[in-house]
Every structure is written in C-alpha cells, then in structure tokens.
From TrEMBL:
Protein's UniProt name: LysR family transcriptional regulator, glycine cleavage system transcriptional activator
BP term (GO), one: DNA-templated transcription
PROSITE patterns: HTH_LYSR
Organism: Paraburkholderia megapolitana
Domain annotation HTH lysR-type: ranges: 6-63
Key words, A-Z: DNA-binding, Transcription, Transcription regulation
Length: 297
C-alpha cells in the first residue's frame, strides 16, 4: 500500500517555523526569504487540508493539530538527517564534529583531547566554537557541549557538571603593597569581564562589597582571553570552575577569597535522538562522562 506523504520539500520550513514560532527566524536559519517560508507552509496546509499555525500581525503559534504534527516532523527529519549523514558522508565513521564555547574548548577540552585520541585514534575530532547553537540539522555537528538549563527540545541532554563562580587572579596580586586579602580590596585592582551571565555586580552584591565600580575594568568577548589576562596579572576575573581548574592546579591562578556563587546553569552534552547509536558519538559522550566523573566513581 503506497504511503500517504506530505509535500516533503515543505517540511524543513514548517519544522523551523514551529521550533522558532517565527517565520522570519526560520527564514534566517534556512537562508531563504520570509515569503518562501510562508508559501511552503501554506502549500503544506493546503495539501493536508488543515491549519497548522494561527497567524497574528507580529506572531504565530501552532494550532492543536500543528503542535503534535511539528513534533512528529522534527523526529522524522532528525532520523532522516542522521541516516543520510551515515549513508553519504565518506568520513562519517571517522570524523566527529563537536560544537562548544571557546572558553570550554580552550580551557578544558583541548588540553584533554589527546587522551580521547589516545583511546580512539581512528576518530578525527573537529571542534567548532562559532558561538552559535548547533541545530544538528544540516550544519554537520554530531555532538555539542552546552552551558545552560538542560532544556533543549527535541534533543537528548545529559548532565555533565555544575559550576561555581569566584574571583581568581595571578599570585602576584595577593602580595605586595595592595595585596588582595578581602573582597573590599578589589577597589585597588582592575576587574576583568567576559560575556558570562554572572557579572561583577552580582558577585560583589552577594559578597556585601560596596565602593567597587562593577562596570570598571577591561572586557573580553572570549572567556579564554579573559582568564589569560588574569594569568598575566592584568587584573581579577570571575573564574568558573571548569575554566580555571587547570590554572589553579598549576598555580598560574589563585583564589584570593573563598566566597563563591553557585551558577544557575550547568554543562550538558547534547545530541540528536538516535545519534548515540553512532560509535563515534557514543565514544566521545562516554569519554566526557568519564573525564567529569567525581573522584572515586
């Protein structure tokens, strides 16, 4: 019996619009015009003879029919994408494309990758730090390490580790005429900023520190550069557990005071459903979990 299928070329437009609840953002993701998205969805609705979206002047939302249909289409496209990558990519079994932030890559992942390669020399790893969240659908990414709340619809997200946030600096700054001995001493030192959500204003308020301008200092877009500036003695940065552990262990950085904030976000390893069946994805995921397992586990 022949399958009853929708117009297949309309499905990516529908899935993207349903995920973003925006025709414009779907158009940006798929690199087409807003009109092309609108026409594709209208064609799909006409062929199905159902309304998938309720359209308002500045917004759209899924109908009672559209919502479960969007979930089913997303799952089908994910399975099709994974199957296509496996079937058509010549190096699909030997090249693993990993997406993560530049800070995690530079300060944690890259210094340890040799251990993964030692165990899996047949897998070539390519690390992307573009700053954009991978959609896993057409961008070639196999697995990602994300920092957030763990809610990634349509994806499998496994907890890796949580973080604390605390000031760190070069050992040179805890000695001398204006040594850092208590949080109030920060008024004598340069504050280093990056794009992390917990900023100096938040940390200073939690520590009960007044008289320090939380906006002053130097700012970097890159967490890696911000930490390196602290290593070089340029000032004090808010360190995050995962990004400063190695520099603390080697003595390149020190914690001048104990007060820390627990971050509301954590690290997760994220991948499309079914991707874990690929040997390279499972190998990398298992290695991450082993590297981050608490001592003694």
């Amino acid at each position: 019996m022949p399958r009853k299928l929708p117009p297949l070329n309309s499905l990516p437009s529908f899935e993207a619009a349903a995920r973003h609840l925006s025709f414009s953002r779907a158009a940006e993701e798929l690199n087409v015009t807003h009109g092309a998205i609108s026409r594709a969805i209208k064609h799909l609705e006409d062929q199905l003879d159902v309304q998938l979206f309720e359209r308002a002047t500045r917004s759209v939302r899924l109908t009672a029919v559209g919502e479960p249909y969007a979930r089913a289409v997303r799952e089908a496209l994910d399975r099709l994408s994974n199957a296509t990558a496996t079937a058509t990519t010549r190096h699909s079994n030997s090249t693993l494309n990993v997406s993560t932030s530049d800070g995690f890559a530079g300060k944690w992942l890259v210094p340890r990758l040799y251990r993964f390669h030692r165990e899996h020399s047949e897998i070539d790893v390519r690390v992307s730090t573009t700053g954009q969240l991978s959609s896993f659908l057409g961008d070639g990414i196999d697995i990602a390490i994300r920092y957030g709340g763990g809610n990634y619809p349509g994806l499998t997200a496994e907890f890796l580790t949580e973080e604390e946030v605390f000031p760190v600096c070069s050992p040179r700054l805890v000695a001398g005429k204006r040594a850092l001995r208590k949080p109030a001493d920060l008024k004598h030192h340069t504050l280093i900023h990056d794009a992390f959500p917990i900023d100096w204003a938040t940390w200073l308020a939690s520590a009960g520190v007044e008289g320090v301008d939380p906006q002053s200092g130097i700012t970097f877009d890159s967490a890696t550069f911000a930490v390196e500036a602290a290593v070089q003695g340029e000032g004090v940065v808010l360190g995050r557990t995962m990004l400063v552990a190695a520099d603390l262990a080697t003595g390149r950085l020190v914690r001048p005071f104990a007060h820390a904030l627990k971050s509301t976000s954590s690290f997760y390893v994220v991948y499309p459903p079914g991707a874990i069946r690929q040997r390279k994805v499972k190998a990398f995921r298992d290695w991450l979990l082993a590297e981050l397992a608490p001592p003694g586990n």
